[in-house]
Amino acid sequence: MIAEVLELNSISQKIAANTPDEFPSGPGTREAAVAVILREHRARLQILFIQRATQEGDPWSGHMAFPGGHRDPTDASLKAVAQRETAEEIGLDLDGASYLGALDHQRAMPRGRPLNMLIAPHVFALEGDPTFSPNYEVSEVVWADLAPLVDGTSHDTKTYSLQGKPTIFNGYRLAGGHFVWGLTYRMLKGFFATIDDAWQPPQEL
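The structure assignment produced for this chain is given below.
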């Protein structure tokens, strides 16, 4: 079943048939978008992550994430935001990639504090092995096999300090040791539920 799910054609069809949940954008709502980027590599489907650079004052400092950022007044759409930010952050032009569609909006909740901010994930598929030129916001670009994420074998936990207390967070441990948690973990679960009607989230602590 996993093999059937992890086919770009199947993923494309599932996303095209899905109507994503969108949050209303009212006065003061900050809008952002990210690019969920897939590729086939050596007969395996992979997904792209970035590690955000360590910056004081950034609530997502050092986190594993998808490339993306805030909407500018000149951006025509949230999809355009994801494309522009990907080009700025890692030097990847998504104009030549296949656009598969949008996923459910997410709310930003850094350190458990809800913000009046929505994030729209947009899914793209590309071919080949592109080179990247990360800017100052990105410390690393990582391709990860999608199968162990979807089937839950790479599910793990990590303890962080939240409001001065040690708190266990669920997430996915990538092959290189990186830990994907928080907002990006929530986006991944929404993605998997979209592409596989039978998908069940991992058992969480």
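Interim note for the steering committee: The first strand starts at residue 30 and ends at 41. The domain at 2-20+29-195 is CATH 3.90.79.10 (Nucleoside Triphosphate Pyrophosphohydrolase).
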